[in-house]
# Entry
Amino acid sequence: MAIQKPSIPKGTRDFGQKEMARRNYIFNTIRSVFRTYGYQEIQTPAQENLSTLMGKYGEEGDKLLFRILNSGDAFADVDFEKPLTTQVCEKGLRYDLTVPFARYVVQHQNEISFPFKRFQIQPVWRADRPQKGRYREFYQCDVDVIGSRSQVNELELVQMVDAVFGKLNVRVGIHINNRKVLTGFAEIAGAPDKVVDITVAIDKLDKIGLDKVKEEMADKGLQADGIAVIEQILSLTGSFEEKLAAMRSLFNGGSASGIVSETGLKGLDELEELFGLIAAAGVSAPVEMDLSLARGLNYYTGAIFEVKALDWEIGSICGGGRYDNLTGIFGLPDLSGVGISFGADRIYDVLTGLDLYPAGLEQSTTLLFAVMGADELRYVLPVAKALRSRGIAVEVYPEPSKLKKQFDYADKKNIPFISINGSNEMEAKTVNIKNLVSGEQKAFPASDIEAILEFLS
Amino acid sequence: MAIQKPSIPKGTRDFGQKEMARRNYIFNTIRSVFRTYGYQEIQTPAQENLSTLMGKYGEEGDKLLFRILNSGDAFADVDFEKPLTTQVCEKGLRYDLTVPFARYVVQHQNEISFPFKRFQIQPVWRADRPQKGRYREFYQCDVDVIGSRSQVNELELVQMVDAVFGKLNVRVGIHINNRKVLTGFAEIAGAPDKVVDITVAIDKLDKIGLDKVKEEMADKGLQADGIAVIEQILSLTGSFEEKLAAMRSLFNGGSASGIVSETGLKGLDELEELFGLIAAAGVSAPVEMDLSLARGLNYYTGAIFEVKALDWEIGSICGGGRYDNLTGIFGLPDLSGVGISFGADRIYDVLTGLDLYPAGLEQSTTLLFAVMGADELRYVLPVAKALRSRGIAVEVYPEPSKLKKQFDYADKKNIPFISINGSNEMEAKTVNIKNLVSGEQKAFPASDIEAILEFLS
# Structure
């Protein structure tokens, strides 16, 4: 067979030892926080039926699904007059963790005790055009609670974000909005279908100024009364409490349109309760209401979250919100949930950029026994075994080689201790260990594992 | 959109919280042992180019590859006169971890320091017909060292098997053979192309008896001299050392054919060295030479391993061997390696069958704060936070509900402690905690986290 120059599909990555150590550090930190809040891990298969996936991510999303050719002879009974793709592919690779989670909840509803608190850390696949920071295979890390409408769930998500980034030593700002408030704005502006346009306008004020925003709103077809309402919204200033009071007045018929928005008022109640709970529980990161926040707008029905690193420019590193009908499409309506997703790749980039990985993360082996000959090799095997059984990572160089080569190996693997033993040590029943960082060298009775452990620690 | 009854593709599985806790226990045990031997984790993408995968698993394996339809319009430039599959699919899902590992080593050879000790725990996909215990998506758990011919590597694999199953409390037997010895048998039987037939014959002696084995060998085309050699091999008895001496004599021209096998002698040297190292290092599980062991015969070139559970009938739960040219097909010849693969699903079944999971594995939350009202909820939030920051898994029931419902929730989630607090506790600044297993109940100052921790431990 001809020799092949090996490569991997574009947009995919190998993770070597260093990347894995760093990624495991991030995932294990996140996992440990999720666990202290009583969230439990589940996993779903990489392949889902296309009937589960299609139509959930919009037309654009459907195009980005990786489809799997039916096994056996996929083309055996095909009607070539009809579109082929749907005839030869019944399964696709999971595109996110949200739809498989909804499918899971419905399929296993009788085994689940609600409120159901789960997390899931698995790769997803999208046939996006690969570019810097965008991959065709990447991990998502989702935490959701489903089956409770209480704002305590929103609070817990905020607390978990705070705890995760506290542990990772990343300073973050937590931005919170509420979809019902945005709906309220559109309602009192007399344009309930223009939620997105109005949210975008709120976001643009700083950049383009009030006049341009009003112009743009007129272009979008907003009437004069509506534009006046937008102007009132954009003039909101002051503390959280002052803004809340001003919005309550607008929603209560006090806006230029005089329209009352019950939805908007409900949204304010939710925001007020959530911020009260955050104050009662105590959260270290700054949390602010951000009326321009609109991620996944057509999907969320209550709280909307976004988290940004304060010391590294990279966009959102975590986000999510409340959804009221995730499982409806699979036949289980009216199950409200709320969740957030941690962006593993971006968090990785932030930690790398700010040099926040703990020292020693990439050091995997503590002690290397250099090997001078077959007898010396056998001599150290029981010592190596005893240390390993105490959890110390020990390597025995597999064959007698030049010491230079063995030292190079220790150096490349960042191994901080080396043990070199010859006939003298064998006779004296000792092992000689050198700290390659400090230069300190000491001999120990081969049987005194405790003393060796102390020297290595 | 019509409501869909959700399901997953046949041969795939969802893993709920209980399964995940058990699987993580197995994987983390294996991982921790690999680490104490200096093996480091890598991951490769789920999708590989079909050019990497094809032709590596035989004709049957090629048919079992899951192929991914090219993205965009896969059928746009297709020549319908030619086979379609190869035109519309360039990528496939990984079928095992071995070929991606070989591809990885060649692709990253300049970054790797040899001997390269890696492990990899990831799912693989095969379009096999699903049946009991056989899935289309399942995890493999491979550990290999590549770039060293020393038997110390074989020793370490045996030690790791011993340590893993020791930690899991599964009694196992470790079977070892050597491909060179099997080659030697075929050579001195004058039939170097009949390695498999001869190995099968050795294995059948107990079941069908010597005469039938000889008959079968004659049917397979073995000459009289060769059959006489087989008879000599089948008559090998005694201790490991006695068998070794007898085989050495056969390979040295002392067999009925008088043929000398250098390969067979080399195999005996390797077996002798490995068993010597095992004795020097000390291994708890019984290790035996098993001349009938032939797994992956066309692939292995030296040691062959197989591990069986002694107390549960399930076949091999772990196996592997040495290979000398894994990376040759990708352009890096003469790189010898040795590795084993742990069968996660079978190990799971053994632990389940023998009831060997540690107590408390499925208990994820330690303490539930029941909630009677909005004030009581806010009162316990700081206590919950303080306990969580000390690593205790705590849940706060998200809304005031009937106590019965909250107790049921604790019961279903196996939560052993519940805390119920009302106006009395709020006034006294205490929290009341009940051990649901022992019935013991105690009040603590809300600020005395240490005392609470002790009660929960």
Chain A touches chain B through 109 residues (CB under 8 Å). Residues 195-219 of chain A form the longest helix (25 residues).
